[in-house]
């Protein structure tokens, strides 16, 4: 498939107030639609960004009862646009932990795909920040590619960005556009955000769309911002900086084939033996 679509990243500063987060997303979405965008993407933790266990439990709902999903489904239908809710926490029936879930809605508001974040952010950073995402969220176990008519979309979330094999798998499954909704920390964002997103685009010959959280959140966490849209040859088409807002870029899907023809690395994979211990 090939065609051109105007895509948007909605850069947010989500907190623990569901109504406020939905209102911010809806306002940014209307601004994106006014700029001609027909594919809108929200960041990770768009529904709420909360790490305190006592607050998190009260915010989690099953997928069908999640307010951000319902609001963005209605918005997609109202404006006739596709909307990717980058992620929000979803209560599970069979696990005390939640899923960090991304949901894609088509222009009719119907859910087209769901993806649960596979790689959990369990790290201790040099500045003293510590995260144990696996204590609150159950990791997903499958890669997801979705068809949007104008092209095929490969889904991922935030820390997945550091695992190149996932994106190669998505590209081999037909993905032309990769989404990386994120809530990157400031120190890791400053060091790695731009280079990793450009690398994933170059390695796969895909467009990369990475809507991000930004600023200081009510729980004290700080996120890096800089939502990016990257072309298949690695050029940054749009960078949102550090303020909440909207960026848009036109994705010409013919550029995917062009990049892959120039360096056909996806056709050069080989099975090799692991090194001896």
Describe the fold and architecture.
Pfam families: CN_hydrolase. Keywords: Hydrolase. This is Carbon-nitrogen hydrolase family protein. InterPro entries: C-N_Hydrolase (IPR003010), C-N_Hydrolase_sf (IPR036526), Nit1/2_C-N_Hydrolase (IPR045254). GO terms for molecular function: hydrolase activity, acting on carbon-nitrogen (but not peptide) bonds, in linear amides. This protein starts with a strand and ends in a 15-residue tail after the last helix. The strands form 4 sheets. Strands 5-4-3-2-1-16 form a 6-stranded mixed sheet. Strands 8-9-10-11-14-15 form a 6-stranded mixed sheet, with helices on one face. Strands 6-7 form a two-stranded antiparallel ribbon. The chain has 6 helices and 16 strands. The mean pLDDT is 94. The protein has a single domain, classed as Nitrilase/N-carbamoyl-D-aminoacid amidohydrolase (4-Layer Sandwich), CATH 3.60.110. The protein has 277 residues and is an alpha/beta fold.
Features of the shown structure:
27% helix; globular; six-stranded mixed β-sheet; 277 residues; Nitrilase/N-carbamoyl-D-aminoacid amidohydrolase; alpha/beta
Summarize the structure.
This protein is α/β, with parallel strands linked by helices. Helices cover 27% and strands 27% of the residues.
């Amino acid at each position: 498939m090939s065609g051109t679509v105007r895509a948007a990243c909605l850069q947010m500063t989500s907190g623990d107030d569901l109504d406020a987060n939905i209102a911010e997303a809806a306002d940014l979405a209307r601004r994106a639609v006014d700029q001609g965008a027909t594919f809108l993407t929200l960041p990770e933790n768009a529904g709420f960004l909360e790490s305190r266990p006592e607050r998190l439990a009260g915010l989690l709902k099953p997928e069908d009862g999640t307010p951000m999903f319902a609001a963005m489904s209605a918005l997609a239908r109202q404006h006739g646009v596709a909307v990717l809710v980058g992620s929000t926490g979803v209560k599970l029936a069979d696990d005390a932990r939640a899923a960090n879930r991304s949901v894609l809605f088509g222009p009719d508001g119907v859910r087209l795909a769901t993806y649960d974040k596979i790689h959990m952010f369990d790290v201790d950073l040099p500045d003293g920040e510590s995260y144990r995402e696996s204590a609150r969220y159950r990791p997903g176990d499958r890669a997801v590619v979705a068809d949007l008519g104008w092209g095929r979309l490969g889904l991922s979330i935030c820390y997945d960005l550091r695992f190149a094999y996932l994106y190669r798998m998505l590209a081999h499954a037909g993905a032309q556009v990769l989404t990386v909704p994120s809530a990157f920390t400031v120190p890791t964002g400053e060091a790695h955000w731009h280079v990793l997103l450009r690398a994933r685009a170059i390695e796969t010959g895909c467009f990369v769309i990475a809507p991000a959280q930004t600023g200081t959140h009510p729980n004290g966490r700080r996120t890096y911002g800089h939502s990016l849209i990257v072309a298949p040859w690695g050029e940054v088409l749009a960078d949102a900086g550090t303020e909440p807002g909207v960026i848009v870029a036109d994705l010409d899907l013919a550029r995917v084939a062009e990049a892959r023809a120039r360096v056909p690395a996806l056709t050069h994979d080989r099975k090799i033996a692991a090194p001896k211990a």
